[in-house]
Write a structure and sequence with these properties.
This protein is α/β, with parallel strands linked by helices and 117 residues long. The protein has one domain: 2-Layer Sandwich (Macrophage Migration Inhibitory Factor), CATH 3.30.429.10. 28% of the residues lie in helices and 27% in strands. It is built from 2 helices and 4 strands. Helix 1 runs antiparallel to helix 2. The protein is globular and about 50 Å long. The two termini are 24 Å apart.
Amino acid sequence: MPHIIIEYAEQLASEAEIETILRVVHQATVDSGLFQANHIKTRAYPFRQFSNAGGRDPYIHVQARIKSGRDAENKKQLGEAILAGLSSLNSNASVMTVEIIDMDRDSYAKYVPVPGQ
């Protein structure tokens, strides 16, 4: 169920490198032990215009949006797993950050169409 959103400075990576980042972050989320691989949605968005502490050092920020109800230890475990995956990459990012965000379980909705119905 988690939605993993990777934001990165456009100049950091080629399309092939982004595919690697997507794969590594997706696998790190699986490796956290909290989610099944086929429930994780991972995507990446480049940004062109940015400031990093007033400078132009490129960075990567990951949002892991999960349904509310997980305890602080689970969230820490997920964040650490994603950071471990990111840190294994040979990236020119000046900093890599991860933010775990609770999505309100009561207002989250999902529809999965059934083929042929």
